[in-house]
Amino acid sequence: MTTTSWILTGLFAAGGAVMLNSGSADDLEAMGDIFQYLLPASAWGSTWIAHDGAGAVQFTLQFGAGTLATYGLKSAFEKRTPSAADFDSFPSAHTQAAFSGASFIHRRYGPRWGVPAYALAAFTGLSRVKADRHYLDDVISGMSIALLSDWIFTSPIEDRVALNPLLVDRGFGVSVGIKGGSQTPGPRESVESDRKRWRYAWEVGQSTVLRNAVSAPGDSGEEIDFRFRERNNPAVTSSLEIEYRMGDRHEISTRLAPFEVREEEQFGVEVDFAGTLFERIEVIDTQYIGYVWRSRWRYRLLESRAFSIKAGAGIDVLGTRAELTVQDDSAGSPGKNARADHLRVTPVLHLSLSVTPCRRSALFVEADSWPTSSERYLDWVAGFRWRLAARWDVAVVHRRLEWTFASSDFNNDFDLEFNGLTVGYS
After folding, report:
1. How far apart are CA 383 and CA 17, in angstroms?
2. Which of 253, 407, 414, 420 is deepest in the core (most CB within 10 A)?
3. Which residues have CB under 8 Å from 186's CB, separation 6+?
4. CATH entry, 3-178, from 2.120.10, 1.20.144, 1.10.150, 1.20.120
5. Which CATH class is domain 198-425?
6. Which residues pair with 263 in a beta bridge?
7. pLDDT one-digit tens code per residue, 281-319
8. 256 vs 149, 214, 247, 317, CA distance in Å?
């Protein structure tokens, strides 16, 4: 990337962070609506500027496939939005459209404009969360659909066409450089044709909360069951993981797995939560957020054609929030709100075992855990993976996520079961 590209990306990122933090939900939603159309239009317009007919076809196929997948999943799952206004929360169409444009610009023409476009696409997705139109995992799914569609249909062309950002006296613009030769490049040769360096994995499926007991304060608050059975349990959720192979034996990865549910409850008894008393007849808006952000290193202890063993360690950032709200009523009675947050950084040990019954398939089980005498944390997954092509794989997975922690301000005993699919590209 050029210095100009870094400056533009930094300006976009800084401005977006300020707006997300201080802007009103309505203003952010309006800006997200604009970028939903602006980024795909910019992608298609870039093919016209570069006289790239093959690119125009590729973007049409990429955007069309991603849009069909997004709205097909919306119709199939009908997940309720955080505001409870609609049943089209999963996945985020705004995010899919924005990342379709950004990923095409990046993959087809390179990072000079691609990285700033990604910054705008990320802002679009986060604006939907801020405006209570989507949960974070809905945004992850919209982004993943766009990226996977782009990797299917789009091929790079930066060796023939360069779109370069320019800073000028009254703003910024773009210069186009075109080399002679064929418009459609041949397939790229991989440095490691049999072992790709990095892998992107999108995990999507159904999560069922088996246990979710919360009390705040932790030492004196009443225990509340946050298993929302009526409309959000089970719920469609998703996560993403990015892996990078540093050599023959070393791997690093990062994984983001958000989980959030909201419900309208009437407990039927008085509840004391975070120092606020809620009456038994009050209609209460409840919210629970739990997310895991993992950074991990692992080492291939043993690998053969038939099986492999990996071990490693990492850091999991675990964030949780429980919140109860009573809205102002029409008679003028004031509402009330109580919220408890907890952030915990947990070291984890990792172990992975896999068996390869044939060249394209693998049975695997992985676990990340850090048990102590007073607390418990365990994330394990088992599944069957099938390699569809040189770069593509799909897996059927069963995951279990459990944690128990206690502190003076917040106690949480949580157990979640997940069944779904993982789609990987390397």
Report:
1. 38
2. 414
3. none
4. 1.20.144
5. mainly beta
6. 286
7. 788 888 899 999 999 999 999 988 889 999 999 999 999
8. 21, 23, 24, 10
